[in-house]
Amino acid sequence: MGRSSKDKRDVYYRLAKEEGWRARSAFKLIQINEEFNIFKDVTHVVDLCAAPGSWSQVLSRTLRGSAEDPSSVKIVAVDLQAMAPLPGVVQIQGDITKTSTAHDIITHFQGHSAQLVVCDGAPDVTGLHDLDEYVQAQLLLAALNITTHVLAQGGSFVAKIFRGKDVTLLYAQLKIFFTHVTVTKPRSSRNSSIESFVVCKNYRPPDGYIPTMVNPLLDLSYQGSWQDLEGVNRTIVPFLACGDLSAYDADMTYPLQMEGQASYRYHTPTQPPISPAYSIALTHKHTNTPIHTPITTTASNTPLHTQATTTPIHTQEQDEEQHSAM
Ligand SMILES: C[S@@+](CC[C@H](N)C(=O)[O-])C[C@H]1O[C@@H](n2cnc3c(N)ncnc32)[C@H](O)[C@@H]1O
């Protein structure tokens, strides 16, 4: 397969490289903001599940770019995986299901609350739709829990959601905390993907609500009665496509040379992953060792910040696969 074939098949992948975004997901946040104006008056923001960092890039470029004093903008990015540094972004390598992560975020804000929390979190999908939807819902609820620790009254929360058959339960839970909840599908998100995004505005936790990470929300039964809610008890959340209709369609193939645009030139990915999950498997492949053989001098025991430069364990093709998937 030629280097440019992916550029042709996925216009947002190509544009991401041309504009210097680490992943095509950048366009999802840009299009959500165009529709919902979520960046307005935001100086403190948390980016949950942030690696490799394209949403943090959008936040950094937009918020710091428009601020009189860029240093007044605080962006905290959290992910299980390490990511390469970004201007004005503090990174926490941690698990969003842990209380300690909420405390780390609060420490970085030095007593301030965030006006916006975004979460593009996704578990490793198995292909078993029910399971994937369930795990994704749990991740979203973990993000909501952490949000209740750090978000200011009136603030906004944006998170990836899989619109499966039990999504009504999630809507109902979000409506407990926010007066406005909308579901949106940016043009840059493939139609073939089950993902959408909830945009929750005006954070108003119930009177007396005490944020906790061992929240009963996570333990509610996902089956049964939620499906039977009717009338005023059933939360109907409006659905909006976002991204101008003239924006590129994520499922279409476009010619490399587009009318009225500069000559096409191939770009390498902006920031290859610094510690990809597939690195150990690749090392086994390259050294021709069976998968159960312990690898002693590989990425798994090389300090994170040196992996990208000292251990040639991932190919450009692999990096492109990862970036093109987001
Ligand atoms: C689709 S990627 C995010 C892409 C990112 N928004 C960007 O624009 O570059 C999903 C991320 O969720 C992270 N993730 C999944 N479960 C997590 C958890 N429990 N805590 C923190 N991060 C998690 C993964 O490590 C992965 O980096």
Automatic annotation (TrEMBL):
Protein EC: 2.1.1.205
GO cellular component term, pick one: cytoplasm
An example molecular function term from Gene Ontology annotations: tRNA (guanosine(34)-2'-O)-methyltransferase activity
Active site per database record: 160
Main location: cytoplasm
Ligand binding (S-adenosyl-L-methionine): 53, 55, 79, 95, 120
Subcellular location: Cytoplasm; Nucleus
GO BP field: cytoplasmic translation; tRNA nucleoside ribose methylation
Reaction equation(s) it catalyzes: cytidine(32)/guanosine(34) in tRNA + 2 S-adenosyl-L-methionine = 2'-O-methylcytidine(32)/2'-O-methylguanosine(34) in tRNA + 2 S-adenosyl-L-homocysteine + 2 H(+)
Lipid metabolism as UniProt keyword: no
Domain Ribosomal RNA methyltransferase FtsJ positions: 21-203
Classification via InterPro entries: RNA_methyltr_E_TRM7 (IPR028590), RNA_methyltr_RlmE (IPR050082), RNA_MeTrfase_FtsJ_dom (IPR002877), rRNA-MeTfrase_E (IPR015507), SAM-dependent_MTases_sf (IPR029063)
Record keywords: Cytoplasm, Methyltransferase, S-adenosyl-L-methionine, Transferase, tRNA processing
Summary of the function given for this chain in its UniProt record: Methylates the 2'-O-ribose of nucleotides at positions 32 and 34 of the tRNA anticodon loop of substrate tRNAs.
Family to which the UniProt record says this protein belongs: Belongs to the class I-like SAM-binding methyltransferase superfamily. RNA methyltransferase RlmE family. TRM7 subfamily.
Name of the molecule in the record: Putative tRNA (cytidine(32)/guanosine(34)-2'-O)-methyltransferase
Organism: Petrolisthes cinctipes (Flat porcelain crab)
Organism placement in taxonomy: Eukaryota, Metazoa, Ecdysozoa, Arthropoda, Crustacea
